[in-house]
Specification:
Layout (H helix, E strand, L loop, with lengths): L1 E2 L4 H18 L3 H12 L4 E9 L4 E3 H16 L3 E2 L6 H10 L3 H8 L5 E14 L2 E14 L5 E10 L4 H6 L1 E4 H8 L12 E5 L5 E2 L3 E3 L1 E5 L4 E7 L5 E5 L13 E4 L9 E3 L8 E10 L24 H10 L3 E10 L5
Parallel strand pairs: 2-4, 2-5, 10-18
Antiparallel strand pairs: 1-16, 3-8, 5-6, 6-7, 9-12, 11-16, 12-15, 13-14, 13-17, 17-18
Helix pairs in contact: 2-3, 7-8
Length: 337
Amino acid sequence: MDIIPAHKSYRWLLVLLFALGATACTPSFDRQMAELAKEIGPNESAAVSWIYEEPSGNITSLGDDWRQRVEKGLRDHQVEVKARKDIGVIIDDIGSFGLGGDEQKVWQQAGADVVISGNYHVVSQSHSGGEKPHIYLTIKALRVDDSAVVKTVLWQDTLAAGWSRRAASIHGNAHQKDIEIITDSSGNQSRPLLSAQLDRNPACYPTGSVANIMVHTDPGSYVYLLNLAADNTMTLLYPNKKMADQPLPSGILTFPPAALAGVQLQFYPLDPQQTCSEAIKVISSRVPIDFSYLPIPENTLYAGAAGGDIKQVATTLKQARGWSEKVLTYMVGPDCR
């Protein structure tokens, strides 16, 4: 996209002691699945969402392996396992932020009595045979009708050969999916009205195409345009160095403005040989929201992997109040005409 000093020996010792304690005291994974199944109950069903990598939020084949293992463990203990529901970040956020309107709708469409999600991280630990990679899992089950925690499972295990290839196989990002659906939970009456659209229908742009975004909102509102790239990173399109963060007197924004000579919004795929899906999240707010930590792809071709922290954006939005959003999804690449 183009618009113009800790003591290592002590740290190692603490990690090693923790690992030894966990190995000695933690029940087997099958035992923990049996305990979870008992908490779910004989007349309840379950659906398993992502088990994603922290802190990146990447949904990986390694996480899918454990997702399958959770499903198998539940079935082995006579729990009815429904079709998978990719709503894992909602589960993570209920305790901290509650549920916004759109999130509540997704939650109620889970199709099961209990929804299970989790995350993992990999740590290298020292053993007599050298360094060995360990996976640390946190798995949480919530009941849909009241959002109550059914059980939290903590587990660690040694990873087998080939794990790094599975971990490098990425097919989504939990935080990006979260950003696409999260809305302000402060109440409809406080949010500005908002409509937004791209200048193509369907929104499919050949490589290097010039695009425009039209936004209509309540006069005096602040508008933000956040690009969600195909590599699950984020950039800030508006405001930028040439267009200040200030309320719109008329509530109307055409981006880029025709009056701003020489400024264009151009779409490029991350891989020139492939057509990919990206999105722009349009936000209208009663008060300013600080996205200054996001990079602005100004006068440069955005090549991916240099975007801002998508998890930080999600946290910013959950803590803000009085805003509306519209997600504009588009395709870009050689398959578009």
